[in-house]
Amino acid sequence: MSRAELLKRAALAVGSLVCVVLAVFLGLLAVDVARYRDALQAGDVRYRVSPGGDNLWSAAEITPFGARAKLLDVQDDVDFRRAVRSMRLARLDDETVSDPEVALRRNEAQALLEAIASGDKDRVRRSKAANLLGVLGLARFASETQDRARIAQSIVSNLRGAIELDPSNDDAKYNLELALQRSSGIEIAEGGGGVNPAPGGRGVKGAGAGDPGSGY
């Protein structure tokens, strides 16, 4: 057998192996995608029943290199779900709560929402995150007696930012009106701030703090 024939057979063998590996990879990727879509739906159901459950919206990944996440491009949706979950577990309707775990939840929600409001590529989702930051600010305003002008400033800034990002965000418009009513008599500088209020947040519910998977 000539050298050329040996090289040709070797090339065919390598090509066949590559095709087999690719077929296996694509098959595993299809399984990964189906499992993850099922996990998102199941996670939404579990959240409504038990928001404190572990590993919501998670599924083990078979394929390497994060191929599933890149193909589905749903990580931003999952991040938003987790931020809303943290807000729900933070018991914003209780203005007197002093549970350290709840305080951690509120700080966690704050951090998650700030990341979305400042870095998400979807303006509508950024708007919703900014609105929820305003809700957290309203919670602080309901219970804190110091730095109220600064708190009011950050609330209004977040809510105006939410409306600028998405003029159809009626929840942000409602919460802005509520914030202006509650901060009546407190001087609020025009044009200050962005969508980054100070950490923390206590009590009170605002419009837009809905369930993951439903209307965002």
Question: Key terms for this structure?
Answer:
about 220 residues
Explain how this protein is built.
There is one protein chain. The protein is mainly α. The chain has two domains: 1-73, no CATH class; 75-216, no CATH class. Helix content is 65%, strand content 0%. The protein is built from seven helices and no strands. It has helices spanning 3-49, 67-72, 75-89, 100-119, 123-143, 148-165, 170-182. Helix 5 (123-143) packs parallel to helix 7. The longest helix is centred in the N-terminal third of the chain and has 47 residues, at 3-49.
Question: Mind sketching the topology for me?
Answer:
Layout: H1 3-49, H2 67-72, H3 75-89, H4 100-119, H5 123-143, H6 148-165, H7 170-182
Helix pairs in contact: 3-4, 4-5, 5-6, 5-7, 6-7
- Give the biggest beta sheet: none
Structural class designation: mainly alpha
Query: Averaging pLDDT over every residue, what do you get?
Result: 75
Radius of gyration: 24 Å
Low-confidence stretches: 191-205, 211-216
Number of helices: 7
Tally the structural domains: 2
Share of residues in helices:
55-70%
Shape: elongated
Instruction: Note the beta-strand portion.
Output: under 5%
Strand elements, count: 0
Distance between the termini: 66 Å
H/E series: HHHHHHH
